[in-house]
Design brief:
mainly alpha
Length: 181
């Protein structure tokens, strides 16, 4: 999965996510993380000009992801329910299924507050701050969360997590944008 992410081969992730829903999987920390990542990809693809035919598929993946979150809420690490529900609200917003941007940002912030040493919640909140328009978002504040997450991910257990190169990419982008202003 990590190598596929680095190669930008999301077909591997799609096959994995499809398998999760066929087998009615037992949650492990990476299952929802991969669903989250794949949904972000498929929603972005469906929003590209000429790719509108992917919209029903993107909506189905987001609905399945939402169902997974609800079904596994009681077994999630602290802050993950809020993080993933925030992501669902953002995906639904992008797909014109719902409109709750303030609630999405509030849940993202709450996730980081509930799990301040979890690089997954920190990276997610950083991403939310990065993309949110002012006054909700801030590249400077996003940089703080990405850097904290990246520092935590220097531990060996994070060596092959797709969020590590993702956080580094955002750190670089934040620094570039802040230099220009």
């Amino acid at each position: 999965m990590f190598d596929a992410y680095l190669r930008e081969d999301m077909s591997v992730w799609q096959a994995y996510v499809d398998t999760l829903h066929i087998t009615h999987y037992t949650l492990h920390n990476n299952s929802l993380l991969y669903e989250y990542g794949f949904c972000g990809y498929i929603v972005a693809e469906a929003k590209k000009d000429g790719k509108e035919s992917l919209l029903p598929e993107a909506k189905r993946y987001v609905a399945n992801f939402k169902s997974s979150i609800i079904n596994h809420q009681s077994s999630m690490p602290k802050g993950h329910y809020e993080m993933y529900m925030s992501a669902v609200l953002v995906y639904e917003l992008r797909l014109h299924e719902s409109f709750h941007p303030a609630k999405a940002m509030s849940l993202a912030k709450k996730a980081a507050q509930l799990a301040p040493n979890d690089p997954r919640t920190l990276t997610y909140y950083g991403t939310s701050l990065f993309y949110a328009p002012k006054p909700f978002g801030s590249k400077q504040e996003a940089l703080t969360y990405f850097q904290r997450a990246y520092d935590i991910m220097q531990a060996p257990k994070w060596q092959y997590c797709w969020l590590k190169p993702n956080a580094k990419m955002y750190i670089d982008q934040c620094q570039d944008k802040l230099k220009k202003h």
